[in-house]
Amino acid sequence: MADVVANGVRFHVQQLTPPPGFAPDSPDSGEARPSVVFIHGLVMDNLSSFYYTLANPLAAAGADVLLYDLRGHGLSERPPLGYALEDSVEDLVGLLFELGIDGPVHIVGNSYGGTVGLAFAMAYPSRVASLVLVEGHFAVQGWGEEMARTLWGIAFGMELEEARTWVASAGRKMTRMAGKADALINGTSLVEDLLTAVPLPRQPLASLACPVLAMYGDESDVIDRARDLASLVPDFTLNILQGCGHSILMEVPAHLRAVLAWWFAGRVGPAPLYQPPVLDPPSASAAHPLAELVAG
Fold first, then answer.
1. pLDDT tens-digit profile of 239-250?
2. Class of the CATH-defined domain 2-139+199-292
């Protein structure tokens, strides 16, 4: 792990490479190893959600992988200002420059990370080889206000005695996450920046050159964004998972790994089908609403 200063902010970065002996880039092969950037979700998330689910298997399969904590998240610096979507895009530009990654990259974004990836692809189309949206948001009109209301709800919920008791009982990791979420929501310009967010223009999406893979749960609260994108983006593959909600990265990582393997192998044949498992009833310990908060 390493710290990299980019766009005036110190970022916590993790880079993964294929195992020794894996076929490297070479002029003879005619193909370069894919370079894949993972972007996590907002507030209650960091790079570890990808590190322990999708990133390591993808590196083992032959990709160069970059993960980083968004500004204010995980182990990255938490400046008081600079949380607009445009700041997140320029943060990624700066990181790629500082790390010497100048070719087109594949971006995999979860939730808000998908919003960043989509905005990056529209601002710098030549820098993106493909885009994978895992429950990715699409910054339509009113998106910023909706996100701000969600964060206010999280902040209010964490103030309730019941929530504090639940967080304390969930252990030190959840206590740290809740503390960082509180500092991010109440100690930075994040909410104000969301309230002034400018929606992504719809028409340029019709000119988006890179292929886009989108994976959403059919019970997700952002499933309409997937349908919007499907009607606008030319090369768009939609994979809807029956019986899943917004947290598919944690719910069904094995299926997501299979779809990513298919995607990076050239999309030969149909995408892997999702087979819903037979699940036990949820436990009472997972019933509190804060238990469902994995990154917007």
1. 999 999 999 999
2. alpha beta
